[in-house]
Design brief:
The protein is of the alpha+beta class and 135 residues long. It has a single domain, classed as Roll (2,3-Dihydroxybiphenyl 1,2-Dioxygenase, domain 1), CATH 3.10.180. The protein is 24% helix and 33% strand. It contains 4 helices and 9 strands, in the order βαβββαβαββββα. It is globular and about 45 Å long. The two termini are 26 Å apart. 18% of the residues are buried.
């Protein structure tokens, strides 16, 4: 069966710093789709974050590019295998220079936390008890 992919395109101010940030989270850079204007961050087999320099990002849109430090345009949410992995990923993000948004969602069967990356894009990490989805 065909596995649809998602490519999240994000404008970044400092491409090298952003690449270091995401590799510190445990993700890899696909050099085949990376250059001086873009970095392809492989999050999973079906999820890729394309980090684009702001001038290069502007070639894909006629709209104003928001400043994610002051304006929210998208919330990216990633699943995690466990509550511990939620905390571990958030810890790696903070250690790499990200900002803990100090928003903990704990509903027992679902647990999540959020951080901003170096450019202010908000990433949520969420675990859900698989038995809760069966009910």
């Amino acid at each position: 069966m065909y596995q649809q992919m998602i490519f999240v395109n994000l404008p970044v101010t400092d491409l090298d710093a952003s690449k270091k940030f995401f590799t510190a989270l445990g993700y890899s850079i696909n050099p085949q789709f990376s250059n001086d204007d873009a970095a392809s961050v492989v999050i999973s087999d079906t999820i890729v974050a394309m980090l684009l320099t702001r001038p290069f990002y502007a070639t894909f849109t006629d709209k104003e590019i928001v400043d994610p430090r002051t304006t929210s345009g998208v919330l990216v949410c990633l699943s995690a295998e466990s509550r511990e992995e939620v905390d571990a990923l958030l810890g790696r993000a903070i250690a790499a220079g990200g900002t803990d948004l100090e928003r903990v969602q704990d509903h027992g069967f679902m647990y999540g936390r959020s951080f901003d990356d170096l450019d202010g894009h908000t990433w949520e990490v969420m675990w859900m008890d698989p038995t809760a989805t069966e009910a």
